[in-house]
Amino acid sequence: MDDCVVHAEVTNLTTPGQCRWHAIADLTALRHKVLDAILDSATLAIQQRGQFHLVLSGGETPREIYRQLRAAHSDWSAWHIYFSDERCLPPTDTNRNSRMAAEAWLDHVPIPTAQLHIIPGELGASQASRVYTETLRTVGMFDLVLLGLGEDGHTASLFPDHEWGSALDSPDTLAVFNAPKPPPQRVSLSAVRLSRSRQVIFLVAGESKHEAVAEWRNGKNIPARAIAPAAGVDVLVESALLSRISE
Ligand code: 6PG
Prior knowledge:
Elements: E1 19-24, H1 27-49, E2 52-56, H2 63-69, E3 79-83, E4 85-87, H3 97-104, H4 125-136, E5 144-148, E6 173-176, E7 186-189, H5 191-194, E8 200-204, H6 210-217, E9 233-238, H7 239-243
The chain binds 6-phosphogluconic acid (6PG).
6-phosphogluconic acid (6PG) is lined by residues 57-61, 84-85, 87, 97, 148-150, 154-156, 181, 206.
């Protein structure tokens, strides 16, 4: 098991489906590494292409990282923000992923509003999914996708026993009903669209993720495994979750 820093150079790797596990001492260190990885990725993308296309994860784990991004120095005018998924709730509901990211970070930096691509979850799953598919129609490869891992192995709003959109001809977004994690209606980017990224980083912290990590590492077909970009994925995980597996 490598305990290593995530470098932006992972974009050069070409083994599809490769999963690199990074054991990180604790949550504070994990946050630092992800923060550095985001800023490295932004610098590289802006240098090479003049734009940085970043997909944000929902959930609680990234909140503090988003807060720390407020103080970062970058050319914010080059950032384009997307969401991996959204909960179908009113825009101001504090459980909205877009609200969380706005309060923690996006309301505090000068990214042009037109470059903040929010999933309109308030329209309900079907319509919001249609609207966001249109939003993504002209968007090419993402530069970086951030994802979380749920206790049941879900990522974004791709849940066990639901459609994950892994087939190559899958739509970019999926309307999700009867989600096991509230609220029941959600919109998710499909696995195939999340995989169209130069870099994908999973953030995994908290004792409750122990079983999902074990299942993923033991080869079980959980939703997180469906994210398979050409460059592979980097999973940053609290080392306690890995050491218990080998006990
Ligand atoms: C959501 C998500 C979801 C989340 C994981 C991890 O909207 O709920 O995007 O996939 O990232 O459930 O959530 P935590 O970071 O809160 O553990």
